[in-house]
Description:
Distance between the termini of chain A: 22 Å
Structural class of chain A: alpha+beta
Structural class of chain B: alpha+beta
CATH superfamily of the largest domain in chain B: Sulfite Reductase Hemoprotein, domain 1
Oligomer: heterodimer
Number of strands of chain B: 21
Strand content of chain A: 25-35%
CATH architecture of the largest domain in chain B: 2-Layer Sandwich
Shape of chain A: globular
Amino acid sequence: MTTQEKGQVMTANRLGDGEVVFLTRAGTWSEKIDEAALAQEPQALAAIEARAAEDVKANLITGQYLFNATRIDGLIRADHIRERIRTLGPSVRFDLGKQAEGKAGAFAAVES
Amino acid sequence: MYRYDEFDAKFVSERTEQFRNQANRRLKGELTEDEFRPLRLMNGLYLQLHAYMLRVAIPYGTLSSRQMNQLAMIAEKYDKGYAHFTTRQNIQYNWIKLEETADILQALADVEMHAIQTSGNCIRNVTTDQWAGAAADEIADPRPVGELIRQWSSLHPEFSFLPRKFKIALTGAPTDRAAVKVHDIGLRLHKNAKGEIGWEVMVGGGQGRTPMIAVTVRDFLPQFELISYLEAILRVYNLYGRRDNKFKARIKILVHEIGAEKFKDEVEAEYAKHPAQQTQVEQAELARIATYFAVPEFEKLPRLSKSFEGARLAHPDFKRWTKNNLAAHARDGYAIVNISLKPEGGIPGDTTATQMRVIADLAKRYSFDELRVTHAQNIVLAHVRLDDIYAVWQKLVEHDLAAANLGLAGDIIACPGLDYCSLATARSIPIAQAISRKFADIDMQENYGALKINISGCINACGHHHVGHIGILGLDKNGEEFYQITLGGSSSENASIGKILGPGFAAHEVPDAIENILNTYVKLREGKSEDFLTAYRRLGAKPFKEALYATA
Lengths: 112, 552
């Protein structure tokens, strides 16, 4: 049976090289969305927001924000197409971005 | 072509070092993002969907082969082996690292290039006709005046913090290939009965969320008054332009809100305050700049070339390409070669480093070492001998650069859209690719005739959808992409803003909808000589609406 949990993921760009990253449960930044923390409770949300703010100050990341996502059988699917494209790379060049580097999210930009 | 003088070289070099210092301070945390953002934007560095993006200025779209080769080097060394030519005649790199940006700016400075005036609320990079200095219909080459405007406007202290960005375009030909009526200021050259030349000054055009056609404020401004008159316009805008609302800050809103007549009066009053002799452009300075754009040393050639005609007879593909992609040159024995960056199913404007080098080499060998980037995201070799065109074409064929679709259905303008852009609401490129594939047959494209299909991935309209004969705007409806179709837009001398035809379409429905519109046109046109836009203007939206929505 499929399990689904809804929540929010914290994302940003790494300051030095601009790479899209996601905040993990360990408080580190991963290039893979499936390693992201999916915050569901207000307390968890507050914690990842605080962590991101600290890492902005520590010059690790920039442009941080939360987006809605769903964990489906252990894999995280961003709810909006924009965020799915960020977990993959351009939908018109599969040879570029995370999808070309073994760091892609499991869900296509658009399900056909 | 324009060359740096010693002041430019020193200035750009200092500016690069200044940015290196700013970037290092940002990386060390001595500058916050809020402090750094305006500094990086002033150097063309944006934060986009996947990474940093660097937009490099190509004044009036003109490049030497050395510069194009350097752009290729940057694509390979600092990006992922390609770059994107934009609708502002510029080039963008999509995968830039902040840590390496100062090195890139230095590599640009090494070939007299930079990224100044590609962002921020300043006077942006000046754009012009990609056939300038070559077109058979031209009154005069507009680039010396474009360069004069560039020098005047570059980091102009009074106009570096305008209410909003400010774009100037100019054309020296009656056929407007520079879309001057949809710019903040559009300039068009005219010749009067006495044989004198002067500029028609148009203000308040633009696209974005509030598209407008510019209004003429002067019919015939003598050339030597141009800069001081532009200053008067900018002063009125700087004073009255709205700073309280970003969406109402462009000069078009000011012109619209106070009315063209009142705006014109304000400009004239401002202009009258400054004795013309104090601010007149010195003729000597313009003459000095004009030498940088000196007419190339053309050979005296016969009007027709036997080898060219022979190749056309022998090779039908070549013949077709010459029919669609060449334009008349002012000189006998030469032609303007238009290289379409729109192969079947390709990404409009994207070019690999290898292709850039091939084009640079062709420019060096066959077109006086000069090439042009067009606002339609293509490349021009402006001065090619008819005798050489077959050799050029063969090289283009080898590198997938010989699409014979200039100005046809496959020659689609598209912004990067949601595949790259953080502002986008929907993807543009896949729509362009799907349409390009649907109309891959050039016979079919030729049957549809002259056509501009323009696609934007959001209301900011970088893909010029408002002025496409067929415009497509990608929007977001509850997380799903959908596309609005507009008809009847044009960026030519008879400019118009397209009108929304009806309810939008899902992405997969768009190519069929376009085909339906085009087949309706073919059915109703008064012969093949009546192109799509002319037919639409005659017929109105009704038959197209009926064709598209009747079955729903």
